[in-house]
Amino acid sequence: MSGNKRKTLKKTPTYIIGLDEILNGGLPHGRTSLIFGTPGNGKTVMGVEFLYRGAINGEPGIFLGFEETVKTLCENALTMGFDLSYLKKKNLIFLMNGQIEPDVIVSGKFSLKPLLSIISGKAKEIGAKRIVLDALDVVFGLLENPIQVRSELYQLNLWLMKLGLTTLITLKPREGYPGTLFQDYFYSISDCVIHLDVRQLDQVSTRRCRVVKYRGSDFGRNEYPFIITNKGIRLIPITKFDLRHKPFGERISSGIKRLDEMLGGGYQRASCILFAGEPGTGKTILASTFVTQMCKQNERVLYLSFEESPDAITHNVTSVGLNLERFLNSGKLLIYGTMPEATGVEEHLMRLFDKVESFSPQHVIIDAISACERIGGKEAAFDYLMRILNFLKEKGITVVLTNQTSGRKSQLEISGNGISSMVDTVIFITYVHGEKEVNRTIQILKARGSSHSNKIKGFRINDSGIEIYDI
Fold it and tell me: pTM of the prediction?
């Protein structure tokens, strides 16, 4: 029946990492969108990147700025690798200063018409498909006559509709009249409204992006963290989980024969394995033994350490006969260490994402997840680990986690940070205190989708590695 027909809204991709996923394809094609936020939130950066990436993908664009000069804009954009001057020479981008002298406005002679007329001509000349109007609040904030404000807003809206380009407007909040007037007006004429803000918690600043409205389209309705890198903006759609985890693959060896037997044949490829235990029980050695086994099989391993430097890790495991240095030299192993307190969740996430994308490992070690709370508390640790595990599981990467416990066997204590649902195999190592000696034991607490031993075994670390024995 004709009454049941649906038409999908045409979209213009921004080509900004993560943003199009949140916008379900991009900004509304041929319509007006608004980016709203206080100074320093990344509004101009997002506008410039929208324009730049469009131009290099065959969609010429125009930038009309009312705050920064073209020279400053080009210099700032170049720090992210956006060569606007080159694109300008190629007639793929037109950049225009829109600064208005205050005395022109005071004299009552101000009008946007001359600027808009120039832009219209340039749009036809270069075949523009998209346009950015940056910091329009600067101009309208200088107008005091309500009639003039309404007139200019009306003329601008008519011009935008006639032009038919995909438009992105950036705006800062302004208190009092006429600020509230033009802010409300731009909200009403915009088909898509994006809020950007910056928050500081425990001395760590976090940028957030939220889509407030999108006419005719569904969109991600949560807040999404983002960072500004030397390659532009990157958003992390944390709450847009579709649970596209890869199924478990074949069995792979832990590097320890007796442990493989306890696990029913070894770890399952693409699963998440957790080593939990008190300090000094051998978690890092278990992880390094697995690293050695996989590298010997010509597979790549990425090792993230929150507690030791790469040099310290490679040196310490030599005491049990493990030589990780040779795998580093052969390019099969990449170790990088970072302090949890060094930056916020988003920066840590992006660093790991970038390492995974560039190194393409089959396996990732995170040592130790108990240090993640130092990134910004329990909530930050949970967010970080859930995003990381979801990302790695979607790629079918085997993940090995270590978690430092106090010796208790509670679920939260062992898995740490509330991520037990994402962990497939849990191996618990603990101390047994005798009268004259302290020994270690190992047991399998969980092995999803697999039979496993329920026996507690002895666990010994010697010069040739790990020995597991019956007790």
Answer: 0.76
